[in-house]
What does this fold into?
Amino acid sequence: MYYKSTRDSSLQVTSAAAIAQGISADGGLFIPSEIPTITMDELKALADMSYAERANIVFGKFLTDFTPEEISYCTSNAYSTKNFETENIAELTKAFDNANILELWHGPTCAFKDMALQILPYLLTTSLKKNGEDKKVVILVATSGDTGKAALEGFKDVEGTEIMVFYPDHGVSSMQKRQMATQEGGNVGVCAIEGNFDDCQNGVKMIFTDNAVKEKLAKAGKMFSSANSINWGRLAPQIVYYVSAYAEMAKKGEIQFGDVINVVVPTGNFGNILAAYYAKNMGVPIGKLICASNINKVLTDFIETGIYDRNRDFYATCSPSMDILISSNLERLLYILTGGDDAQIREWFGKLSKEGKYEVTDEIKAKLQADFVGGFCDDAETKKTIHDFKEKYGYTCDTHTAVAVKVYLDYIAKTGDTTKTLIASTASPYKFSASVLEAIEGQASAADEYEQVAHLAEVSGLPVPQSLAELKNKPVRFSEVITKETMESYVLKKLGIEA
Ligand SMILES: *Cc1c(COP(=O)(O)O)cnc(C)c1O
It folds into this structure.
């Protein structure tokens, strides 16, 4: 197996090269040349394995240039109780009727990004070694909250790497800001930008693509890489938990091996749900993939009409990690659905960057609708769902998970589908304490983020994740705020390349 680019099918690189580069030089995303299969016997065998062992099986099929020793070095370091609060790593809980919730937020930063960002540093450093690359890697991240913290925790004190994270000064929650400002580690940097998330992202992109900066870095023995979800090293780890969850559901007697399940995913950049699509196409019996959006419902509209149109108002919602109008990983899905038609992808994504809009053919739309169902809900419905769900089932979910629950409830009301269903839960309710408390109690709370956490503990009865409980006593290490114009000089100064 090799990896090609969604914009150039003739490209052939190893998975190690794809992971080290992050994005293809032609602007396309790396994609495996074929989707490997997993048999029912292999799925059955997973039932008795640990999460790290299950990950070895799945990675072995995608990272074919890695040795088994290299893979198990990565998985055993990432997926242990050193980093995760539960032995199972991904926790399958019984929720209600025909649905199970898959809690993906027991890692160090309490969001599902940890599932990939705990292992990415190991995959990346192993890839560099395999490629014979001896430069030190500098990871630059622009974040609207969850990715930045998860990347910092993943790369903290990882030898041969440095990481710098930029976030919009007024664009993250107080808990998210606190998490980043107190980050530990000798190779980390965090800086707020006077501006919005787009300013951070544009700034990072400009530094990435500036050849003069690249040269200066190379002279200093360093190179840039990326930790965002366009990197295949972030997507592959997400396939693991869907494969694992199927085996777990059978092990717990929720289904029999061979039964079909549906999967619901609260979606932003389309990475998480694309991983479920890969699991399905490997042979895991998955029926419908239900794509849940908040009011920024560009994907719901796309699945319904075949027209992707980002020319619309952008809303800041109570599920901020899904406030996104360009879902990058959709490019990978469309590449697969067109049978690898790179010219077609170049045309559509060229239109997207020029006009903000493209329309797929009826044939592609039909293929899309065969696998995917789209749905959305607004903030009022999200909060009502948190409230009602807790009342009825005693389960407290975060705002992103609530969007998935609501879209699932709408789907079964409409279709009467009784297929067993897996709902991906992407964040701990504690990470969004203010909105969750407001939903449960019907009014906004004036308390600070720590009082809110303590209060939510009383209301929900859930243990407070240790990493959030410890925050209060950690000193603030990073409080710098800079303008977007000075990002480049900030980076060069921090790297000791320029005074
Ligand atoms: C990133 C994130 C999402 C969206 O995931 P995608 O892979 O971008 O679709 C959903 N919920 C939470 C809590 C997140 O942090």
